[in-house]
Amino acid sequence: MMQQRSKLLQQPARRVARQIVGRELAQWVRARGRVGQRQSSDALHDFRVALRRLRSTLRSFRPYLPPANGLRRRLRELARDTNESRNLEIWQGWVTAQAAGLTARQAVGVGWLRGRLRARKRRADGRMRGGVSQSFARLRRELAAVQDGRSGAAAAASSAVAAAIRAGGADLRQQLARVRSMRDREAAHKARIAAKRLRYLLEPFAAGLEGGGQLVERLELLQDILGEIHDAHVFGDELRNALAEASESRFRAVGRRLLPWPPAEGPPGTAPPPGARLGLLALARRLATDGEARFDRLRRERRKGTIADLLRKLAQLGRTLGGHRGGRI
Fold first, then answer.
1. pLDDT value at position 262?
2. What is the pTM of this model?
């Protein structure tokens, strides 16, 4: 297997890219067949991961694959259709875990929020299923055409991977340098994406690279840490919106007392119950603490030097891989 993976680097980039697209497409199709099955709780996760891998491969090997106008954009749109459902699932789990230890008054607002999340999850799942059903067949055909194509720039896979590592490593280093606290949301998000792309780029070749497996593991760890920070940021948006709605509901109640006339019909949804802000504020305080704890994981990795070592090894691999002529790097 190690020799087989190493030989990949010696082959033309366009051939290797098509092989990777074909393997990832097969994984995506299998995951699609399980989405919606009640007994397959990991199906959506597997579907999203396979979709992310395909998007990353098309991006990394774009010069070496046949042109596919609009394909990456359509894949990105489908990914967005699945993101909300996944995020809501994560948020529901977090809120459920935080429900323990709340006072009866705080539990009122948390119960309202959980109901709100459940309703949004149902709607998001419906949009996701609709998006998948509407676009999957076309995307599958387009990806199969990319897999079967014969055009693309001529270069060795080692050169193509080296160029992508150099660009991705420089981007990761730049974004991580800007991440100093939970306030650096955009940079943390971009660093997470850079780590993810590098991980997906290296995985097919890891067994043929000296220390390749360790690099992939470290990138995965960094991606997980930054992903937890990203989840806290996104859920912070949800909590702020819920708090704003609860506060607005309070003033609407005042308006009804002052002007007790029939109001116009409002948007659908369950209004926050009286006192909902207490529970939401309790969750916001816990999320602030939780978010800092998540960021502490990044600080610890920095203090241990593992991130600096990762960046150094990526830079070294990017410099040396372009001259690969066979054997284990």
1. 64
2. 0.85
